[in-house]
């Protein structure tokens, strides 16, 4: 009977019940009907147990670091740096949008923070330059998914926590795929710029102007260097690295750039706390949900079904990408990883797929789902920032989604794309 918790969960999502409550109500109702009171108590106890984890403390710290840098005007310096480097190209502001997302990814690791912070600046600026508002919102949403791919990444921390993998290895494996997504989006921007005659945002910057923009962006750009360097060098754990990032953001904002005031901190802390609470509640509910997945023997049933389709790992990887893409349309990346990771991961590891490689396949695919209609979270954020309807943005984003899907399949069938950097640094076999 417990196996029916998945259809019931999907039904709750379809009628609009928030994911957090759906993940607890669906298994809770079935456990109650089944008379499994002890397991019902365990289900709700695991909501807290799922959040009470030292590795997961990295998530609120990284979110706080992103909020501090955004409030301290650091985001603006990244945009100015991007403009100096790429603003002279046709479609310059669209290229700047993508490059800024790649740079901002190294600070926050959040697609929602990226869309909100960069969208509020770049969407009005692009509209003023002659771009349609729907295009500006679409490229902002599409490029924001780079945030959780290039380290630091909140969803990779979650995956590592659930599956017992190395955070450092996952961070390193995400670097090249994230850059590949950015380059792919820039190629599509160039194609559309030539076709629709997009303007350049400025004349070509001199080397002096580029040097000045680089100096202004130096301290923000050092953030991912400090985070990754500290983790890879064994100086601190990912959670400690997140705390260091917060301290660094405060020092840079308040004492070096002097753009962050003491009076800004309460609001910054509140915003970071609200966002972190949402994520951690979802993680707790998903870990409790995972308990019922185990009790229902769903992993064994699904493994038997998947292996019955084909014994060829390449065919199964293709099919699982289709499944993850559909799941990503309706379910946020974090809960999807916690629910599906323990089910799908062991199946593909047994088939000879490297666990780090599969982690990247899953993380990138579900991250792209954040920008996929009809329920992609960043589409709603982009709609809120731009004032454009979600349906309109959804149509404009389709060419960019096509590029991201191509990158997903490249990552899937060419393991070297994600595995080379971890292997060269000794974090993967």
Structure, described:
This protein is an all-alpha fold. The protein has one domain (2-424). Helix content is 77%, strand content 0%. The chain has 21 helices and no strands. The protein has helices at 5-14, 19-33, 37-51, 58-71, 74-86, 92-105, 111-128, 133-144, 154-163, 167-196, 207-232, 238-256, 265-295, 298-309, 313-330, 333-350, 355-368, 377-386, 390-396, 398-413, 416-424. Helix 4 runs antiparallel to helix 13 (265-295), helix 11 packs antiparallel against helix 12 (238-256) and helix 15 (313-330) packs parallel to helix 17 (355-368). 52% of the residues are buried.
Topology:
Layout: H1 5-14, H2 19-33, H3 37-51, H4 58-71, H5 74-86, H6 92-105, H7 111-128, H8 133-144, H9 154-163, H10 167-196, H11 207-232, H12 238-256, H13 265-295, H14 298-309, H15 313-330, H16 333-350, H17 355-368, H18 377-386, H19 390-396, H20 398-413, H21 416-424
Helix pairs in contact: 1-2, 2-3, 2-13, 3-13, 4-12, 4-13, 5-6, 5-11, 6-7, 6-8, 6-10, 7-8, 7-18, 8-18, 8-19, 9-16, 10-17, 10-20, 10-21, 11-12, 13-16, 14-16, 15-17, 15-20, 16-17, 17-20
Helix content estimate: over 70%
Main beta sheet: none
The low-confidence runs, each spanning 5 or more residues with pLDDT under 50, are none
Tell me what portion of residues adopts beta-strand conformation: under 5%
Judged by helices, strands and strand pairing, the structural class is: mainly alpha
Number of domains: 1
Instruction: State Rg.
Output: 21 Å
* Number of DSSP helical runs: 21
Our measurement of the CA-to-CA distance between the termini, rounded to an integer number of angstroms, reads 41 Å
N-to-C SSE string, H for helix and E for strand: HHHHHHHHHHHHHHHHHHHHH
Quantity of strands, as a count: 0
Name the average pLDDT.
Answer: 85
What does the overall shape look like? globular
